[in-house]
Amino acid sequence: MITIALSKGRIFDETVPLLKAAGIVALENPESSRKLILATNRREVRLIIVRASDVPTYVQYGGADLGVAGKDVLDEHGSAGLYQPLDLNIARCRMMVAVRKDFDYAGAARRGARLKVATKYVQTAREHFAAKGMHVDLIKLYGSMELAPLVGLADAIVDLVSTGGTLKANNLVAVEEIAPVSSRLVVNQAALKVKREMIQPLIAAFARAVAAPAG
Ligand code: ADP
Ligand code: MG
């Protein structure tokens, strides 16, 4: 049996075509089913539905053999025990620093001001500002980061941005890109050895589908 960990929403939606190219079709839709284990057309392959930030944990400890996780999540989690053979080029966005439109970020950075930064991505933010030699107080949030600068909880946020629509709707602007983000295939290193005959063809099929996306 091969277990693949996915999260609901865009990662599931954008992984479906890649699975299909590898001959794998889920028998249920996670958006409408309450099941957390989904059977597929292949008896030896099942999908599990977990929180996006839990995918690396399931794969690392062997609760799943493979998974799809954003680079944002992998950078926060660390890569211990995880083999990352493939950038799937899906769920693309950017990790950005954003502030209120009326906040002078460049000026604050130049003056060496100590900034309050709210984010779900504490490790990523810590490394980014340390590399720039900026002093920051990090405030851990679990969602709706955009709110923090509006109510004075923080001067800046570190968050994912794709269209910028949410920032704009909340009078924020992106002032710095930390890194481009896309989702990666992650594989449990022990599973790769023990189940190589099943996992290696899957990785190869995913790689072909990424290189030549079907219309
Ligand atoms: P959760 O709400 O569980 O934190 P999301 O569904 O918001 O997770 O995001 C899951 C993953 O999708 C993220 O880890 C990231 O890699 C990717 N992602 C998040 N926001 C965007 C976005 N705006 N555009 C593209 N991909 C995104
Ligand atoms: Mg979300």
Q: In terms of topology, how is this protein built?
A:
Elements: E1 2-6, H1 10-21, E2 37-39, E3 45-49, H2 55-60, E4 66-70, H3 71-77, E5 82-87, E6 93-100, H4 105-111, E7 115-119, H5 122-131, E8 136-140, H6 147-150, E9 156-161, H7 165-169, E10 172-181, E11 183-188, H8 189-194, H9 196-211
Parallel strand pairs: 1-3, 1-4, 7-8, 7-9
Antiparallel strand pairs: 2-3, 4-11, 5-11, 6-9, 6-10
Helix pairs in contact: 1-9
Bound molecules: adenosine-5'-diphosphate (ADP) and magnesium ion.
The site of adenosine-5'-diphosphate has 17 residues, from α1 and α3.
The CA-CA distance between the termini, in Å, is: 30 Å
The main β sheet shows up as:
6 strands, mixed
In CATH terms, the superfamily of the largest domain is Periplasmic binding protein-like II
The CATH topology label of the largest domain is D-Maltodextrin-Binding Protein, domain 2
Summarize the helix and strand pattern as letters: EHEEHEHEEHEHEHEHEEHH
The radius of gyration is 19 Å
- Helix share bin: 25-40%
Shape: elongated
What's the tally of helices? 9
What count of domains describes the coordinates? 2
The CATH top-level class label of the largest domain:
Alpha Beta
Per CATH, which architecture of the largest domain? 3-Layer(aba) Sandwich
Number-wise, the strands total 11
